[in-house]
Design a protein that fits this description.
It is a single chain. By secondary structure, the chain is an all-alpha fold. Helices cover 78% and strands 0% of the residues. Helix 1 (6-31) crosses helix 3 (69-92), helix 4 packs across helix 7 (150-171) and helix 4 (95-102) packs antiparallel against helix 11. The protein is globular, with a radius of gyration of 19 Å. The chain starts with 5 loop residues before the first helix and ends with a helix.
Length: 290
């Protein structure tokens, strides 16, 4: 049930950003020792165990009944693709740069909502989206001295995540967050289990512990986001999600001795600004429809 408690929602988003950034940081450390797909497999294995335990406590397998099995599968594939591509990008990119590039996902949601959902996008949101993509070009800098091919992986990860969010929106009236998260966990773990034996790297107890930490932290982070949206509107909470760039910059400095450069920060500000304006326009449009 929705309760208006904006400060609680903001607090949950801020807390979630810490868990999610910590998971990204440890994922980057793991990619220095084992293949990115193996990192993803351990993460999804942990994710699956957590979600199945919650399902069991909240009514058993009956909670896995779904009216939209194909959409659940497509969402699971989208989330998995996003995770794999982002972890691959982290292996070669500074943490803050990958985080800043990932901020473009809400703009991709706007673009994809036209062909998939048949939504009509006004000129204001189109302008904000185009400005956001300019910010991405500033961060990525194709053709420039600072360009990294891995940055395209981060952009593709954001696109896959946007696709998954469109699937989530299509299921929102019939599927509970618990059901959707559990299917995403099981689909991701199942699909990676087919491939990971061919890309297996040696696993030490420390690597396994780090992988479990990634799984727990990312699961807790996403669950906190779900809880936050029960207390406040997305348009109110959106600005606070961008604090993740601050945590990524601090962890990048402390753990990897790397800070984002000036142009990365400029691009991130442009992307964040366009994303915030897009959220604002969606809120205005929703009020007009209501």
């Amino acid at each position: 049930m929705r309760r208006d408690a904006p400060f609680r929602g903001i607090g949950l988003v801020l807390l979630a950003s810490i868990f999610l950034t910590s998971a990204d940081m440890v994922s980057k450390l793991l990619t220095l020792q084992i293949p990115p797909l193996q990192v993803t497999w351990i993460r999804y294995g942990t994710f699956s165990v957590i979600m199945l335990a919650i399902v069991w406590r909240r009514g058993g397998l009956e909670r896995l009944r779904t009216q939209r099995p194909m959409l659940q599968f497509l969402r699971g594939v989208g989330v998995l693709t996003s995770s794999v591509l982002f972890i691959m990008a982290l292996k070669h990119m500074p943490l803050a740069d990958a985080t800043a590039t990932g901020f473009v996902a809400p703009l991709f949601v706007t673009a994809l909502s036209i062909p998939i959902l048949g939504e009509k996008i006004g000129w204001r949101r189109w302008t904000a989206t185009l400005v956001g993509f300019v910010g991405v070009l500033i961060v990525v800098r194709p053709g420039g001295a600072g360009f990294q091919i891995a940055s395209l992986l981060a952009v593709a990860s954001a696109l896959a995540w946007a696709f998954a969010m469109i699937m989530t929106r299509m299921m929102s009236r019939t599927e509970s967050p618990l059901t959707t998260l559990t299917y995403s966990a099981l689909i991701g773990f199942g699909l990676t289990s087919f491939v990971v034996p061919f890309l297996w790297g040696p696993v030490t107890p420390l690597i396994l512990l780090m992988g479990v930490f990634v799984g727990v932290s990312s699961t807790v982070g996403h669950w906190l986001i779900v809880l936050a949206y029960r207390h406040a509107d997305a348009s109110l909470l959106a600005p606070f999600s961008y604090i993740q760039l601050l945590w990524a910059s601090l962890l990048g400095l402390v753990v990897f001795a790397v800070l984002p450069d000036f142009w990365t920060l400029v691009g991130a500000v442009i992307i964040a600004g366009s994303g915030l304006y897009t959220a604002h326009r969606e809120r205005v449009t929703a009020k007009l429809r209501g």
